[in-house]
Amino acid sequence: MVTAGLIHYVLNLLHITVHIRDVCVFLAPVFSGLTAISTFLLTRELWNQGAGLLAACFIAIVPGYISRSVAGSFDNEGIAIFALQFTYYLWVKSVKTGSVFWTIGCCLSYFYMVSAWGGYVFIINLIPLHVFALLLMQRYSRRVYIAYSTFYVVGLVLSMQIPFVGFQPIRTSEHMAAAEPPIHPSIHPSTYPPTHPSTHPSIHPSIIHPPTHPSIHPSLPPSIPPSIHHPSIHPSIHPSTYPPSIHPSTHPSIHPSIHPPIHPSIHPPIPHPSIHPSIHPSIHQ
């Protein structure tokens, strides 16, 4: 009735004289044509233009809808089927684009559906089931997250403005399918790239899979000997970095165990006058 009254008011503003009874008689046939258009748009968005034309032809001749869209049939289903199809079209459009603009349009169409017919529970249950199917198919993305989050919040608030609905969306079991909060794509496993998380550039491979030997680590420069890069030996104290004069094999203070013992009988000390003056008395004469 609100739709018929609004159409009558707009026609009078345009100086088109029409009786309110004529508006009520032709309301259902006009909306049946809009239903065919919305069905075409929905099917074209899902498949292609040819399938959309075929679906529009089917919805125009289906017997169950003809009985509710003939002239003089002033019932809720005359405009509710159009609102149903148009809401689904805007939902698919918002999921594909991830645009808040299309999602707000979907919410407004859902609000019109709630105000026209009590079968709005089909929408509020089928859309969450669609999102759940996308989760199972690992097709959940940021676009779906934006579309469903906006639709759930705005659509829920708008539907609660209808007097006969009130707080039913959060109290009754008919709306339980939409009660689960959306999952952010950044924490859902289905949004991980095909590779393992250990290959993520922010995670160093050595943290998750430490190499067995640093010589095969890809980050090491090839010009440096692999033996220097052992994690337990600092390059400054590694034997390969010592100069030849103090190499551990020739310096007994560093590695005395590998230096051969010195026997006085084999290696006698070299005499020096300042140290052993009694050995060469002729020098001091």
UniProtKB/TrEMBL annotation:
Catalytic function, reaction form: a di-trans,poly-cis-dolichyl diphosphooligosaccharide + L-asparaginyl-[protein] = N(4)-(oligosaccharide-(1->4)-N-acetyl-beta-D-glucosaminyl-(1->4)-N-acetyl-beta-D-glucosaminyl)-L-asparaginyl-[protein] + a di-trans,poly-cis-dolichyl diphosphate + H(+)
GO biological process, one term: protein N-linked glycosylation via asparagine
GO molecular function terms noted in the UniProt entry: dolichyl-diphosphooligosaccharide-protein glycotransferase activity; metal ion binding
Subcellular location: Endomembrane system
Domain named Oligosaccharyl transferase STT3 N-terminal: residues: 2-179
Biased composition (Low complexity): 247-257, 275-285
Cofactor: Mn(2+); Mg(2+)
Transmembrane spans: 23-43, 49-67, 117-137, 144-167
EC number: 2.4.99.18
Family indicated by similarity: Belongs to the STT3 family.
Protein name: dolichyl-diphosphooligosaccharide--protein glycotransferase
